[in-house]
Write a structure and sequence with these properties.
By secondary structure, this protein is α+β, with helices and mostly antiparallel strands. It folds into 6 domains: about 60 residues, Helix Hairpins (Orthogonal Bundle); about 240 residues, D-amino Acid Aminotransferase, Chain A, domain 1 (2-Layer Sandwich), CATH 3.30.470.30; about 80 residues, OB fold (Dihydrolipoamide Acetyltransferase, E2P) (Beta Barrel); about 70 residues, 5' to 3' exonuclease, C-terminal subdomain (DNA polymerase, domain 1, Orthogonal Bundle), CATH 1.10.150; about 80 residues, 5' to 3' exonuclease, C-terminal subdomain (DNA polymerase, domain 1, Orthogonal Bundle), CATH 1.10.150.20; about 70 residues, Rossmann fold, CATH 3.40.50. It has a 5-stranded mixed sheet with strand order 2-11-10-3-9. Strand 23, helix 23 and strand 24 form a beta-alpha-beta unit. Helix 1 packs antiparallel against helix 2, helix 12 packs across helix 13 and helix 16 crosses helix 17. Helix content is about 35%, strand content about 20%. The protein has 24 helices and 24 strands. The structure holds 2-(butylsulfanyl)adenosine (IVH). 2-(butylsulfanyl)adenosine (IVH) binds next to strand 3, strand 8 and strand 11.
Length: about 675
Amino acid sequence: MGGTIDPAVVVEVESLRKALHHHNYRYHVLDDPEISDAEYDRMLQRLIRLEERHPQLARADSPSARVGAPALSRFGTVAHSHTMLSLDNAFNDEDILEFDRRVKRQLNRDEEIVYTAEPKMDGVAVELVYEHGKLVTASTRGDGVTGEVITANVCTIGAVPLVMQAEGLAGAPARLEVRGEVFIGIDAFKELNRQRIRHELPPFANPRNAAAGSLRQLDSRITARRLLDIFFYGIGIVTDAVFESHWQLLQALKTWGFPINPLIRPQVAIRKVLAFYRELSHMRGQLPYDIDGMVVKVDSLALQQQLGATTRSPRWAIAYKFAAMQESTVLEDIEVQVGRTGVLTPVAHLKPIRVGGATVSRATLHNEDEIEKKDIRIGDTVLVQRAGDVIPEVVKVIASLRSGAEQKFFMPKTCPACGVAVLRLKGEAATRCVNSSCPAQVKERIKHFASKGAFDIDGLGDKLVEQLVDNGLLNSYADIFDLDEAVLSGLERMGTKSAQNLIRAVEGRKRISFSRFLYALGIRHVGEHGAMLLAKHFSSIEALSECSQEDLTAIEGIGPVVAESVAGFFRQQKNRAIIQQLMENGVQVDYEAVAITDRLAGKTFVLTGTLKTMTRQQAKEVLVTAGATVSSTVSRNTDFVVAGDAPGSKLDRARQLGVTVIDEQSLRDMLS
Ligand code: IVH
């Protein structure tokens, strides 16, 4: 401690810092890391150790600041040199067109205005001040005039440059006040809430609250664990630099090391701005972070200056908000549905309400415990949330609106579909109907059997399955291959043509691969992947049906739960009889089809768009057969995105993350 330091240590500390700043920039701004996360961590840990051993080398802008500092007793405040304004809101296309007309009117111009349109991040606004390229202060927006100093917390955000990227800092401005939105990605948010629930802490209601809560942690070591992220979208002031347009400014920020949202649509006419809004609304559910709209900005800085601002917001920008994803409505009733495996799921019937652009009238309540925990009663006004493509959920009850007439819900003692007594096992959240002939279960099993990943029978939709079971024409999925065209065509809502088509579709599906066949059986806990593993291991359905639970557990990838379920399925005479009937009705299982290789073992693929020579399902099958994993969402862990015709937002996401995109031909090359 103190005294002289070995010059070699000084050199090492300096070179570690320089390298860490550089790798941080590669990772967060260029999305093109040169080293692995583990390697980065090793370097960072080494730096921290050296700084601990030689405290005189400590510096505020050292990458070691990422791990946080001991708790403060309170935050200081700072005045923003330029007020951090808010934005006016638009809620429909007409509001945006009116904004465009107003801009032209104020500027006294007829020609088209050039705009830059950006995703509106749903996070927390911050301002960071850099002096000669070094981060000196970070603050919240506060009331726009004065904010709280949260420098230590902001330093922990990996995407924040502690030192600007500029040649020897000679190129860095003397002062830069840069603004952006701190947010927490959806995955990090979910993980954070899982941890909080484990530690019996209340979960955050949404990612924005989680980000705000994390930024206001007095102990920045806690903030550091929260995996906050940031995109920058503007400045307060900058010295020594002149820009002509907002887009040019964003580009400069990027070269200085500030991450800019790659989805930003630069320099377009108002018509394209509206088109971009539609694109963003479609992407919204797939993005790895929450956005709550689009921000439209007049691109020319000279025109921005001319337009000026009101006390509240600039006249050169507007926020076009998305429909809210949460709304309140009345929960009118709770219905109990019975699933394929007999699980009873309480479903809320809601007074129909528009949420995030769609009408919602049902929401899942998961199970009895969930209703109990949230104290949901029939007649309550509840907050309903839609997130991405998932089934709407009841977030919470608005207890202040209770009249006292609300009724408590009790799980039924008997199955609502078959009347047999239900069972809830100790340690399980689910209540089950254990009658495997229960008509509700039979319907769900048949729907699963006919679904895309299974027998994929065109024309045998949910409604028709229900009708056929109710009419006694289907008692199990084996009866599908026994359906009679004449009887079918006599059914309500079914003509000769549809009956003919259905029979043809059924006939065309009699040959099936072993793995699909196993998946179609609907054995509890056996998904597409498990079915694939079993199909690979056994030479026939007979061999599988004779296998003991112990032997099944010995198969790689098959755990005790799956093994027990599979063995249990084949122990039941009824299931064996149905399989027998399937064979008698002409189903042919193709045992040759499964030849699993490990050519693509460990690789993760995501498919998007329409492929020419195979369906997505077929592509998925061949990939899984070759050892790959097929996921529905693109993340940093994705190895390849296969893009067909008219690809969706997954392609944008892949580009954004720098994931390799390949076409169908390259996929075929990989597989052959
Ligand atoms: S520009 C004076 N751009 O939205 C204009 N704001 O409702 C300053 N926000 O406080 C804002 N994404 O926290 C701008 N791309 C973006 C944004 C954005 C999110 C937030 C920001 C601001 C609020 C205004």
